[in-house]
Specification:
Blueprint (H helix, E strand, L loop, with lengths): L16 E3 L7 E6 L5 E6 L8 E3 L1 H15 L3 H48 L5 H20 L6 H19 L1 H7 L2 H11 L4 E4 L2 E3 L20
Parallel strand pairs: 1-5
Antiparallel strand pairs: 2-3, 3-4, 5-6
Length: 225
């Protein structure tokens, strides 16, 4: 995954794209070639390899075209959204059950505290026993309060909106990446292609896709350049 230490706002693909010839990560910096052409992305050559230099606009345009070719169909994205919501509902149900169980524990401890007070007043237990027992009850109540999972209602209302947004990003991946801020571009590309991406012969290839792309080809269809 691309390190944020290597982030440069002018070059979101820096250290993310690898040279398909020598395997090194491409750097990003402004430099001029012998003919005065301003380049952005470069591959420092190893001994015996020729350096690869590409203009910033060209490499990023080719990457956007690659994203157009690998983004999933709308029906697959809809299934993805449904799966996200289903998983969330299951986790939400578990959280509700856990909260109910903890509330029962709190009720039992409060009932225990009331019984201890009554026992002390009725001289059924001495002060020392009361204080030891009441400290135990207070400790357990404090632990339960500290581990309270909170109310899941607000998150429940938001999950469908989040899932719909995720679906929109999936079916508009190229457009979304092109219009994003540089830091957002870097986050987005590393989510979908966690191991980076190779570039050679004017094509992008990825050895490992994100989960949503597991059934997709590892390179985009050819387009006229």
């Amino acid at each position: 995954m691309t390190s944020y230490k290597s982030f440069h706002p002018d070059f979101p693909l820096r250290r993310f794209v690898r040279c398909g010839v020598c395997g090194q990560a491409m750097t990003g910096s402004w430099s001029r070639g012998k003919l005065g052409v301003l380049y952005g992305y470069n591959c420092c050559p190893r001994s015996g390899w020729r350096a690869v230099s590409l203009r910033k606009e060209r490499l990023e345009r080719l990457f956007a075209e690659f994203l157009e070719g690998v983004q999933p169909r709308a029906d697959l994205a809809a299934l993805f959204r449904a799966a996200v919501v289903e998983v969330w509902r299951a986790k939400e149900a578990d959280a509700v059950a856990l909260r109910a169980a903890r509330q029962r524990q709190v009720s039992d401890l409060e009932a225990r505290r009331s019984k201890l007070v009554a026992a002390l007043l009725d001289d059924k237990i001495d002060q020392e026993t009361y204080e030891a027992e009441i400290r135990s009850v207070r400790t357990k109540l404090a632990e339960l309060a500290e581990n309270d999972i909170g109310d899941v209602t607000e998150a429940d209302l938001e999950v469908d909106a989040v899932a719909r947004f995720a679906e929109y990003v999936l079916v508009n991946l190229s457009r979304f990446w092109s219009g994003a801020r540089p830091d957002q571009k870097q986050r987005l590309q590393t989510v979908f292609f966690p191991e980076g991406i190779d570039f050679s012969e004017e094509k992008f290839r990825t050895p490992v896709n994100g989960l949503i792309f597991n059934d997709l080809p590892n390179e985009a269809p050819e387009k006229p350049i």
